[in-house]
Amino acid sequence: MRCTLNQIPCSGDLLSTSGMPLALMVQPFALPHPSEEPIQVVDFGESGPVRCSRCKGYINPFMRFIDQGRRFVCNLCGFSNETPREYHCNLGPDGRRRDADERPELCRGTVEFVATKEYMVRDPMPAVFFFLIDVSMNAIKTGATAAACSAINRTIPDLPESPQTRVGLATFDSTIHFYNLNRALQQPSMLVVPDVQDVYTPLETELIVPLHEVCVDLFLTTQSYVDIASISVVPRTTGGQVYYYYPFSAIADSAKLYNDLRWNVTRPQGFEAVMRVRCSQGLQVQDYSGNFCKRIPTDVDLAAIDCDKTIMITFKHDDKFQENSECSFQCAVLYTTVFGQRRIRVTTLSLPCTSVLSNLFRGADLDAQFTYFLKQAGNEISTTPLAQVREQMTGLCVGILHTYRKFCATASSSGQLILPEALKLLPLYTLALTKSIGLRPDVRIDDRSYWITRVASISGSLAVPLVYPRMFAIHNLTLKDTVTSVVLPSSLPLSSEHIDNNGVFLLENGEDALIYAGKAVSADVLQQLFGVSSVDDISDQFVLQDYGNELSRKLNEVINEIRRQRCSYLRLRVCKRADPAEFQFFSIMVEDKNALGTSYVEYLVHVHRQIQNKMT
Predict the structure, then answer these.
(1) pLDDT tens for residues 477-498?
(2) What is the rounded CA–CA span in Å between residue 323 and residue 282?
(3) Strand locations in 189-310, DSSP E?
(4) Residue 580 has pLDDT above 90, yes or no
(5) What is the spatial distance between Cα 603 and Cα 394, in angstroms, rounded to a whole number?
(6) Element spanning 395, H or E
(7) What are all long-range contacts of 603-611, with beta carbons under 8 Å and residues at least 24 apart?
(8) CA distances (Å), 593 to each of 33, 467, 576, 601, in order?
(9) First and final CA of the chain: distance in angstroms?
(10) Measuring CA to CA, which of 216, 410, 582, 600 is 20 to 30 A from 12?
């Protein structure tokens, strides 16, 4: 759980003056840091977890016990509750319960409660994995069908080992083919449904469950337009995901397809989820944004939720906070584990309140604020002209920096562009956003549509690299090996000034990676990295290999470390001089002036001029 502001403004007027958004990026199933302990499971038995009797907030470390532990004050609504007799414990001299450090729910920000019967309207559903495979002539010709079958075959052994786990399969071309998987049959029998407009299941049993009860993920192995804008609606409303391989290459992309599918079914996740976010009196939830279905204003329904999905929640004031008081946020997700257990995952965050504007800027979270920018842009693209969205994003940036200049840096010369320390990279990332695939006028419609679906559920850690990728020089790699991991080399600014014709450079945005080989790279470096002596001989269907030398080994280590950090296999492509991909590589040099917009220096001048205009 990450807030755009690490100090909460005491009033709505102060928040409005700052120009900054107040939003939470909630990633309930985020992978824990290697140094963190696993999330503790707490079982309160038949009585269920202790909750506030007024707002129904769950017991957490920020609830305050009083009256020798006989009562507790809710940190969300301020109500004084009677402590259940079986949960009573005396307080120590510091006012804390004597058993606070022994109870995870009283000393940890995230815990998981075992759900009781009252949280279930029926028994939990089993984990079901249903694979729908394109077997059209085009898919067979491109190798997509074979790649999908191979990936599924290799993934099935990694599915959750539970007696309840179920698997189903169907194929489609101009008709849909279901398969009776009854073990009594010598081999599966195929049942064809010719009506694709009004699909029905030809058997009531042996075909798993109706698909509307299952989260839908799409793996698009395509070489042409597929209208992602339309078909992505199903994944977005069921908590699913779109995977996009364009143009699909059976040679270069089969490994990524397998790894994406395997991670999709093995990553930490939950099914049949309902999520609600509560906050302290003084704030109220304004809106939710992400991949989900919403039937009532307070809750979001998720057929599935996993460790890669983030939901953004925006807030507005409905009252004032006292200076130096605390504001709490609590996210509760009721869900079914892959093993059929009903759980409630509760994450609680408490932040100090302030009436001082400079404190807001000092506590601003750059990545969370930019993630807000990114998701706002994604939401606007479908209804607003691209040029207008780009202006809106710049306007958001200018508004924030103008407030800081006007109220927090009054002693500085008016000719200086003064940036708050915590947000000094905000103009750079905003420029990168205006030049990104989502806001560029020259990209394929499917590419933009895929970008929109990706940003809808993207996490704060992946938002920046999506528009401002990391770039490394890989022709002279020197790595610092530690006991636990590889330390990546320093990244380079995204400017052609840092591109040397004698060098080889790796650009990665968390999902794709481009390798650019300059026209004057030495034959020795090419031989070590690619097994060829000329740039022209590097295969367009690039597959990473270890060529048995130190430089090749280090490149493999770098890419594997990036894959580990990003939880993504990375789709690798090589860019060569005069190759179409070369334009793509240099279009990502967002600090340069190009057809997509101004240079970073010119953009700063533009932002500064806008601020000065607002000051006069």
Answers:
(1) 876 655 566 889 999 999 999 9
(2) 13
(3) 189-193, 218-221, 242-245, 269-279, 283-289, 299-306
(4) no
(5) 10
(6) helix 386-408
(7) 603/427, 603/431, 604/417, 604/427, 606/394, 607/394, 607/397, 607/398, 607/401, 607/417, 607/427, 608/417, 610/394, 610/398, 610/402, 611/398, 611/401, 611/402, 611/405, 611/417
(8) 39, 16, 21, 9
(9) 39
(10) 410
CB-based burial of residue 190 (10 Å sphere; 0-12 exposed, 13-18 middle, 19+ buried)? Answer: exposed
d(C-alpha 477, C-alpha 471), whole Å = 13
Alpha helices in 311-365 (DSSP H): 357-362
User: Residue type at 554?
Assistant: K
**529-563 exposure pattern, b = at least 16 Cβ within 10 A, e = fewer:** bbeeeebeebeeebebeeeeeebbebbebbbeebe
Distance, CA of 450 to CA of 521 (rounded, Å): 35
Q: Any idea which residue has 């009004």 for tokens?
A: 198
**Is 50 exposed, middle or buried (CB count within 10 Å of its CB: 0-12, 13-18, 19+)?**
buried
CA contacts within 13 A on the Cβ side of 232: 23
C-alpha 104/C-alpha 478 separation (Å) is: 43
User: CA 123, 126, 132: angle at the middle one, nearest 5?
Assistant: 140
3-state secondary structure of 605: helix
Cβ(245)–Cβ(257) below 8 Å: yes
140-150 confidence digits (pLDDT tens) = 999 999 999 99
Taking every pair of Cα atoms in the chain, the longest distance, rounded to a whole number of angstroms, is 84
- Residue 158's φ and ψ, nearest 5 degrees, are -95, 0
pTM equals 0.94
- Please answer whether residues 74 and 63 qualify as being in contact, where contact means their C-beta atoms are separated by less than 8 angstroms: yes
Which residue reads 């994450």 in tokens? 347
